[in-house]
Amino acid sequence: MTEGVDKPGALVPSGKGGGDPVVTVNSLTKRFGELVAVDDLTFSLHRGTVTGFLGPNGAGKTTTLRLLLGLAEPTAGVALVFGRLWGSKTPITLVTSGFGRAGRRSDRCDGLS
Prior knowledge:
It is a single chain. The protein is of the alpha+beta class. It has 2 helices and 3 strands, in the order ββαβα. It is globular and about 35 Å long.
């Protein structure tokens, strides 16, 4: 199953697990003035799927994650995690709920273990 693959940087789900979606994004849009960072993005993820965002710099990957985690407000649309908006969650609550973000550089964690 593919959704929105005609758009650059589109998400291609790796498959469906069982039950209700754990992540639901519907018509998500984010504008910064005239710049459209995320344009009408819709997808859902089910338990057990592994998903990554791939695309060139400026494609909206980080902005999408920030919208999903409630760290930025969408211009339009909605992003739900377990059926709820996550805007009121603190970073520590997100991490203890099982959410994380892996950046490009792993050397920033040297000496932490």
